[in-house]
Amino acid sequence: MKKSTTYNVSGKFTHVETNTEHNFQTQLYKVGIYIIFNGNPSRQASTSPERVKKLISDLKKAESKGEIKDLFFGREIKATKDEHGFYVEVTE
After folding, report:
1. Which of 48, 56, 43 is nearest to 30 (CA)?
2. Residues of the chain with pLDDT > 90: what percent?
3. What is the rounded CA–CA span in Å between residue 82 and residue 89?
């Protein structure tokens, strides 16, 4: 099996300094991941499973430093590339 990456498809947290809540949602597509921030279509991006996993790691570090609170993540999925180089969800 090819290398796979496990990541959370959504998350939310509160920024301590401003006391504002932020969130993100993702959708896996063949060519990458569509991510939208704070439910705002003007704040969207295309990314990869590896970069979403890095974002999650960075948020956990920010929580441990007290920069954010109320950190919550949605369900995890595992993604890999198929024989044609397209992303697919791994279902075991």
Report:
1. 48
2. 95
3. 10
